[in-house]
Amino acid sequence: MSHNTAEPRVVYEGKYQRMVVRGTWEYSERTHAGGLAAIIIAVTPDDEVLFVEQFRVPLQARTIEMPAGLVGDITAGESIEVSAVRELEEETGWTADHAEVLMIGPTSSGASSEKIAFVRATGLRRIGPGGGDASEDITVHAIARNRAAAWLVEKMAEGYELDAKLWAGLWMIEHHLDGRPRG
């Protein structure tokens, strides 16, 4: 039987993820509707890029990421844009007047069916301290845009794990998806 046509078999299901076997493939799926997460590309009025630092249990390490979260995990049917602004507020203490989905694609296509939406947040204003919800311990970093890449390299040298999507997010600050510089 081909791994493409085999019936999926759930071998474990938790609150947020399930483990599936389909033919010779083993992979995870998100259990919330849509299986989608949003990564928020946010630049403050002072031209600072917002990053979040937190301890990630699967890596047993502190990470640097752009703000992100599951779409529709709180309110079923919540749009990507609404979810992104909610996560931005919760994690960083900043809100946005506008959120635009730039692209949606897989996060790790060989290991998970999860997809991520890159969302550009604009019209930012500070409304609170950030730091995440009661289960999270998030440190917010606002780094000058022209220094953000160098800062990330410094953090990597200090032993932080860096989400590879950071580099795509930084590129999207400066460019349209077709490669044209943003003006």
UniProtKB/TrEMBL annotation:
<dbReference type="GO" id="GO:0019693">
    <property type="term" value="P:ribose phosphate metabolic process"/>
</dbReference>
<dbReference type="InterPro" id="IPR000086">
    <property type="entry name" value="NUDIX_hydrolase_dom"/>
</dbReference>
<keyword id="KW-0378">Hydrolase</keyword>
<protein>
    <submittedName>
        <fullName>DNA mismatch repair protein MutT</fullName>
    </submittedName>
</protein>
<dbReference type="InterPro" id="IPR015797">
    <property type="entry name" value="NUDIX_hydrolase-like_dom_sf"/>
</dbReference>
<dbReference type="GO" id="GO:0006753">
    <property type="term" value="P:nucleoside phosphate metabolic process"/>
</dbReference>
<dbReference type="Pfam" id="PF00293">
    <property type="entry name" value="NUDIX"/>
</dbReference>
<feature type="domain" description="Nudix hydrolase">
    <location>
        <begin position="33"/>
        <end position="174"/>
    </location>
</feature>
<dbReference type="GO" id="GO:0016787">
    <property type="term" value="F:hydrolase activity"/>
</dbReference>
